[in-house]
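During the practical work, I worked with a single protein chain and the C-alpha cells that describe its fold, as given directly below.
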Amino acid sequence: MGVLHSAIMNTFPDCRLKAICETEGVLLKAAKAVLPKTVAFHKDYLGMLEKEELDAVFVTTPIHTHLSLITDIARNNRDLSIFVEKPLASTYDQAKSACDAIRNLNGLYMVGYQKRFSPIFQRAKELIKKGLIGELLFFRAYVFSSDVLSRGSSWRSRKGTGGVLLDLAPHLLDILLWFFGEPSAIEAATRRIYSDEVDDYVHAAISFGSGMKGSVDACWCLRNYRLPEISIEIYGKNGIMTVSDDFVKLTLNRESGKSQVFYRQSFDTSVSFLLADPEYTIEDEFFLEAIRKRTKPQTDFFEAAKVNAVIDRITESGRRVE
C-alpha cells in the first residue's frame, strides 16, 4: 500500500514524494533502484520527521503499529496531515487514543476506506436515500477472498494481524455503517479454519438504530476469488438492491417500476493516473484537495473509529459463543 499511494501521489503536478521510511532491506533496495534520486530513504521514522520538511505522511504499516506512529507523528509536528491505511487501529480503545492524539493537530487526518470513492457504492447510497426499493426490511452481505488456503500459507495467519475481521472485513463494515448508521445490537460467531492464532471466518447478525437488520459473512479461505469480493443484498418492500464492486442492480416488484442495472462501465471512472482501482486515485486526490482547502475529509479518524467499535463488538460476541 505504501508503494501504491506513493506512486499515485507522485504523479500529481503539485505534489512530490519526498521521503520514505522502510525497514525491510529488500524493499528498500528495490525502491532505491526505481525511484528518483530526489527521494530520501530512512530506516527510522522519527529521524525522517526531524530531518525532512513534510506536509503529509502516509502510514501503511502493520495495523498494530498504527497507534504509536500516529502518536509520535502528531507529537512531532502539529502541522502535518496524516493518512492511515485501514483500519485505524487494532482495537476501539487504540482508535480512541489515535483520535485523542490528533485532536489539536492543525493538519488533516484520514483513513483509507476507498470503497466510499467508488461510483457504484455512491450510487447505491443515493438509491437507498431515494427509497426506490421502499421500506427497508433486511440485508445480507459478504466479503470473501482466497488469501488463506492452507495451514501456515500466509502471513495473515500470524498473531498480530487481527485475522479476517481486521484485514478483510473493514471495508464492508464501513460501507454498512455508511448506508445504515450505527448498530444497536450485534451477535456473532467466529471460526479458525487454517489459522491457529487468528479467525478465518466470521458470521455476524447486526441490528442498526434505524431499524435495519441483516447478516454479514467474512471469510478469506474460499477458493476461486482472484480478488476480494464484496456483495450486499438489500431487501425492501418494493424490491431488492444488489451491490458489488462491479454493479448496482435494482430488481423491483412489477408495480414498483422498471428494474435497472448500473454496471461499473456505466460510470466515468477516468483518472489522471490509474494504478489498481480508480478509487485509490480519487481517494488520494480527495485527501490532497482537503489539505489545500482545509475541508473535512471523508472517513476521518473519528468516523473510522466506529468501524473499530463494530469489530470489537463482533469479536467479543464471537468469544461468548465459543
Observations:
- The domain at 2-114 is CATH 3.40.50.720 (Rossmann fold).
- The radius of gyration is 20 Å.
- The chain has two domains: 2-114, 119-264.
